[in-house]
Amino acid sequence: MTKLNVAMIGYGFMGRTHSNAWRQVGRFFDTPLEPELAVVCGRDADGAQQAAGKLGFHAHATSWEEVVTSPGIDVVDICTPGDSHAPIAIAAAEAGKVVFCEKPLANSVGEAKQMLDAVVKAGVLHMICHNYRRAPAVMLAKRLIEAGRIGVIRHYRGTYLQDWIVDPEFPRVWRLEKARAGSGALGDIASHSLDLARFLVGEISEVSGLLETFVKERPLEDGSGTGVVDVDDAALALVRFENAAIGSLEGSRFCPGRKNYNRFEINGATGSIAFDLERMNELELYVEEGPDSGFRTILATDEAHPYVAAWWPPGHILGYEHTFIHTVHDLIAAVHADALPTPNFEDGLRNQQVLDAIERSGETRGWESV
Amino acid sequence: MTKLNVAMIGYGFMGRTHSNAWRQVGRFFDTPLEPELAVVCGRDADGAQQAAGKLGFHAHATSWEEVVTSPGIDVVDICTPGDSHAPIAIAAAEAGKVVFCEKPLANSVGEAKQMLDAVVKAGVLHMICHNYRRAPAVMLAKRLIEAGRIGVIRHYRGTYLQDWIVDPEFPRVWRLEKARAGSGALGDIASHSLDLARFLVGEISEVSGLLETFVKERPLEDGSGTGVVDVDDAALALVRFENAAIGSLEGSRFCPGRKNYNRFEINGATGSIAFDLERMNELELYVEEGPDSGFRTILATDEAHPYVAAWWPPGHILGYEHTFIHTVHDLIAAVHADALPTPNFEDGLRNQQVLDAIERSGETRGWESV
Amino acid sequence: MTKLNVAMIGYGFMGRTHSNAWRQVGRFFDTPLEPELAVVCGRDADGAQQAAGKLGFHAHATSWEEVVTSPGIDVVDICTPGDSHAPIAIAAAEAGKVVFCEKPLANSVGEAKQMLDAVVKAGVLHMICHNYRRAPAVMLAKRLIEAGRIGVIRHYRGTYLQDWIVDPEFPRVWRLEKARAGSGALGDIASHSLDLARFLVGEISEVSGLLETFVKERPLEDGSGTGVVDVDDAALALVRFENAAIGSLEGSRFCPGRKNYNRFEINGATGSIAFDLERMNELELYVEEGPDSGFRTILATDEAHPYVAAWWPPGHILGYEHTFIHTVHDLIAAVHADALPTPNFEDGLRNQQVLDAIERSGETRGWESV
Amino acid sequence: MTKLNVAMIGYGFMGRTHSNAWRQVGRFFDTPLEPELAVVCGRDADGAQQAAGKLGFHAHATSWEEVVTSPGIDVVDICTPGDSHAPIAIAAAEAGKVVFCEKPLANSVGEAKQMLDAVVKAGVLHMICHNYRRAPAVMLAKRLIEAGRIGVIRHYRGTYLQDWIVDPEFPRVWRLEKARAGSGALGDIASHSLDLARFLVGEISEVSGLLETFVKERPLEDGSGTGVVDVDDAALALVRFENAAIGSLEGSRFCPGRKNYNRFEINGATGSIAFDLERMNELELYVEEGPDSGFRTILATDEAHPYVAAWWPPGHILGYEHTFIHTVHDLIAAVHADALPTPNFEDGLRNQQVLDAIERSGETRGWESV
After folding, report:
1. Residue D147, SS3?
2. Which residues of D touch C269 (CB under 8 A)?
3. CATH 3.40.50.720 occupies which residues in chain D?
4. Where in chain A is CATH 3.30.360.10?
5. How does pLDDT run across D100-119, given as a tens digit for each residue?
6. Which of A63, A178, B84, D134 has the most Cβ atoms closer than 10 angstroms to its Cβ?
7. What is the CATH number assigned to the segment(s) C3-130?
8. What whole-number distance in Å separates Cα of residue A301 and Cα of residue A82?
9. Once rounded to an integer, what is the mean pLDDT over residues C340-347?
10. Which is nearest to C100 in space by CA: C48, C45, C160, C35?
């Protein structure tokens, strides 16, 4: 089988999920190309070397500039913090590589536009890793909506709640710095709710946003004092979709007990759908069938459900990391077919534009068009 | 025991819940006054007579003007649609009666102010029937919050979802007419989410609202054609509380499968609380206690829980109508103590002001102060 | 309307539920006879007098022998502990009264037989109060099974779990004395699981039982020392039904956190049904419809559901006490039609025979036929 | 790092889970030995070759006799149907290999004894793969019980329900043949409930069993007619533990909607624990703390929870296959320490003895000692 040589830039949390996906996909799915974990790249040589060993890469490197232009590389997989996505992606595109980028695409609309321009100009394939689209239950939701099971959509309600910084003594990590992360809960988690809204409901036309930082100063990680938190701890928005549906989005890291509560509910004219990432193998479906109707819990582990046939018998659940394997699976198929996968940089830009509108609305205190 | 003579105006849905409360309260609680169902009043003599028999009133009447000034009456209980609350309440107050009024207090802020002025001027006791405050689980939530179990509150998330008009062929009943009902989902159900927000979190300072009418014309009930729906089918708002908490409110009658889904979640600095009226005997509580913490389901049916000692052993659940019995119980105690009960017309006015701000915001497309 | 004069013997926990049912039934349902709470009877004159006032009876008495033969009485409602059911019921039958008796029918099969003989010989109507049959969700389960929605039944799994005597310092109340209560968890709560099994699945042919007493001695209520617990704390049984279904029954008062957990699951050839009394307004239904099937939660509060039309709109839940109101409703209809209601003393005897077989099996350590 | 060369016999469903475990364990955990997927063995050369490629083995073979005596092999991992476990395990033991065997250990007590004798005589390490012990939530349950959080255990209630053969036209696969599978639901799934009972509660002393075959004849897989089903479709048992706890076990493949419903509930003197494999990342815990107690849902995804630190942040759930990775992780550690892992062949034998007692009891219709 033809090899697909992958260079991964960054080896933190996302580097672990992506590399696992590349390693595992061929063990369970029949892929038309065989991914090779060619090289992992990081600024720290020792760290990169250890990551290569642990994650199964053939080689390691410290200069992403060299890696992304290396002739042996087919795909550049970007797993760094948001502030370096643009330069890496643009260089990779210019070098003719397939570019696979973690979300959010960039820290600003301007960067995102440049990135999209670069991949379009270079004529390379591109994909953004909004992995939750590819939880089987979410893809099943998409299928049910497209089949008309819940009718025309009226409501979307998306909340992504966590609690990891609720303690004011939790340090000011990079995700709490605007210069590194771009934004706080908005870009990190509400962006998932947003991407799912666009995937399942449609494009958002305008927003009214509210951003709040509850703890405005935190200890620095190195113990040298305190630092300012200049990103949002929580972000909420009312939204209007182009198709006349209405909805709300929320991301917050200040919700005790909510660990990874990426939940949405969609109400259509004849039914409803709900999902919660903490129970990601389940999809709640209500279809109006008279008085004995009720929300049913579909255990999305049947071989008829998206991606499941490659795995285990019904009721044997999948985990978080599988969403990345499915994403990589579809990316490989797209590369083989030379077809643009989704979500791609256009989605990344569009998402960024909505996030930007929410931020603007938080300042103007009025509705903002996307 | 001293009697408390009650005149009830209106005998529809709310008339049934209120009369049941007056009949039942003394059978389970020890009340300092004994309520007597003196008279029920309605415009239709036959209907009023039948209601008197069915609901257990000694007499019936057709003129509320006469009833509210009748010397034998102690309490006037107003169960009519919102457009008649003001004249009845004002007349009752002027006649020196205790005034007990269904929510919403009025169809406009102006009316609500007049009503509050009237009861204050007359020096009579007054109460608005926001019955859900007195579900044992909700009162337990209040108790836990006041005891500091979840710390300073950061988030309130209130949704009240139903589905009874999702069919576009459902007729244009009075609740869909602005002249009768004042507003749609906003005043009917979002107002409950709002009242619970004020009860459990605090006063709301400003709002950003979104109102939508999905089905703008419906068949008339008499079959004579169609009529315009001039109230909202769904109402959403972002809110800021005076105490720096933030939140959202939503009421919609277009959510298939949600029958009476009055749900709220509150996140504090050290814990969270959630409630769903469809499971009104349960309170979900999360208290941060290390890695083995988790949302617990308190079955609020213990004799130590509010109001429960009067009822059944643990695990024997209460129903919707009990919330009215508890409300009436507290009203009787207040009358006996000559003390102002809560929620009262001040709450009714405050609620109306928030609803009004949401409506205004829906038009101005900006944040509105309450 | 013709009156139906009710004499209630006993005014404890069950006296409160029964009297409430008699008082409330006509306020919500149209009944063909109008129940009158004629007299309440108890051994203690003061207690009976207070009960009469509190529960709304016209009179009180201390001699059940006189009450049950009083010419003005139509129905004798027996709410005493099990050891007095037989003499009261037999006397009431001989006096030609309708006999309505709390469960369990008696403390032994012999007594139960005598009671059935007495009502049959006297030609009077009789009913046993297994109120949970008349939770709307349970009656809906019956309807769905009869409509063939889950096919031929293979499995019944019934557990009734509580935790009120888990503390070894909890006193030795009458329910823990064999002479008063007949048995422990077996007759008190497992009997409900059993009755529901017979109602929903069919007759039980043989059983293998296990009974256990975890705390064999407890403080006496009067503080005068300790007393022996000679009833079971927990009772389990495997059962075979006449129709070839198999199942299990369990009652235990030693399950921390289970307050009133009367749960059953039924598996048929094409579907499944589950119910939990702590969420008594809900019925879980699974019907095989391909990969997108799932257990649905029916909120059994629709006007199309059994008994619900008399109450509130969808989603406004009912409570524990409503099951008694529905039972009394059906008893009144049966009396008016001069038709034998169900469950009646035949069911009471049959239930007793199964309980007896379980106790015998616990001793013989082998399967026992019913 | 020292290599640990693994030979896997069989490459069906269990072969896929085991090989994945061997491949993945070192990517996430720091293991003291490095497993090498040396060879996979199957009767069909083509199949074995394909399996080697797909699952990542260096080589393939068709003779397990040769493989298990091959000097380069350290561990023999047995993933074949139960009827071949004994000869393979015994030969592997005699060849001095570590023996890792899928459950059930054997198809009879006699075989299981021979296997245990063989490994003891040979002085080799041995383990049986009851993988569900190593779901983090189950291991957390163990930890909580050992810490005394729920007190002395009184009740164990284990059910393992599936629905994959509810259709009578489903063919007579090998799992429905006694000669191949040993038993039906009993050995396949009730054995998991049993193993968890022994792990969490203690040894079982006696049982009363009930076995049933609902569909006694099914189409053959090759279309050549029908074949007899000579194993149980469902198996139930009442059990007594040596420590005075009581319980029940059930396995059934005839429960529509239950896909992989391996559920248990344990009631102790001061608390309760419940688990459901379909939501395997959650543990339900009740600890008596007064009226505001309630069952809490612990999302067992915190780094403080067993095995979790190697994976993802809180709320990012694990799947079915992770239980095997954890099992292999502990096996490797045991091999490195030259210490006997658990569960091992002693557990396998003990489990087999209980299953055997249940089968005997089903025939004798009385309690059977283990």
Report:
1. coil
2. 166, 256
3. 3-132
4. 136-279+281-318+348-369
5. 999 999 999 999 999 999 99
6. D134
7. 3.40.50.720
8. 34
9. 98
10. C35
Determine the distance in angstroms separating the CA of A322 from the nearest CA of chain C, rounded to an integer: 20
| Closest CB to C246 among D212, D240, D257 | D212
Cβ-contact D58, D39 below 8 angstroms: yes
Q: How does pLDDT run across A162-175, given as a tens digit for each residue?
A: 999 999 999 999 99
Query: How many C-beta atoms lie closer than 10 Å to residue C162's C-beta?
Result: 23
CATH code of domain B136-279+281-318+349-369? 3.30.360.10
Architecture of the CATH domain D136-279+281-318+348-369: 2-Layer Sandwich (3.30)
C15 phi, psi to nearest 5 deg? -60, -35
Residue range(s) of every CATH 3.40.50.720 domain in chain C? 3-130
Supply angle C-alpha A236, A237, A240, rounded to 5: 160
Nearest to C272 among D236, D255, D366 (CB): D255
Handedness of CA A324, A326, A332, A338 (dihedral sign): negative
pLDDT in tens, A317-368: 999 999 999 999 999 999 999 999 999 999 999 999 999 999 999 999 999 9
Show residues of chain D in contact with C236, CB under 8 Å: 238, 246, 248
CA C16/CA C13 separation, integer angstroms: 5
Cα–Cα nearest to D238, from D248, D223, D230: D248
Q: Which chains have 3+ CB pairs within 8 A of A?
A: B, C, D
Closest residue of chain B to D149, computed from CA coordinates: B292
Q: Give the pair of three-digit tokens for residue B55.
A: 């609901």
First-to-final CA distance of chain A: 44
Give the span between the Cα atoms of C192 and C276, in whole angstroms.
12
Q: Which pLDDT belongs to residue A1? A: 78
What is the ipTM, given to two decimal places?
0.96
Q: Do B293 and D298 touch (CB under 8 A)?
A: yes
Instruction: Say whether pLDDT at D294 is over 90.
Output: yes
* pLDDT at residue C259 tops 90: yes
Considering only CB atoms, C236 lies closest to which of D238, D269, D287, namely: D238
Does the pLDDT at position D1 exceed 90? Answer: no
How much is the mean pLDDT over chain C? 97
Tens of pLDDT, residue by residue over A28-75, are: 999 999 999 999 999 999 999 999 999 999 999 999 999 999 999 999
pLDDT digits 0-9 by tens, D314-328: 999 999 999 999 999
Which candidate from D285, D292, D304 shows the least CB-CB separation from B285? D292
Closest approach of C337 to chain B, Cα-based (Å): 23
Where, residue-wise, is CATH 3.30.360.10 in chain B? 136-279+281-318+349-369
Residue A162: what residue type? Answer: Q
Residues of A with CB under 8 A from a CB of C: 140, 144, 283, 285, 290-299, 302-305
List the subunits that have 3+ CB pairs under 8 angstroms with C.
A, B, D
Distance CA B155, CA B248 (A): 8
Contact D317 A261 (CB under 8 A): no
User: Which residues from chain C sit within 8 angstroms of residue A275, using beta carbons?
Assistant: none
Cβ contacts below 8 Å, chain A against chain D, sum to 80
Which residues, in sequence order, are CB contacts of C46 under 8 Å at separation 6+? none
Residue with tokens 């099937």: C293
Write down the pLDDT at residue B10.
Answer: 97
Using CA coordinates, name the residue in chain D closest to B305: D291
Residue of B nearest to C260 (CA): B315
Q: Residue B1 — pLDDT band, cuts 50, 70, 90?
A: confident
Bond prior to C291 in cis (omega within 30° of 0) = no
Angle, alpha carbons A196-A202-A204 (nearest 5°): 90
Q: Are residues C315 and B23, on separate chains, in Cβ contact within 8 Å?
A: no
Please identify, in words, the CATH class of the domain defined by B3-132.
Answer: alpha beta
Helix (H/G/I), strand (E/B), else coil: A259: coil
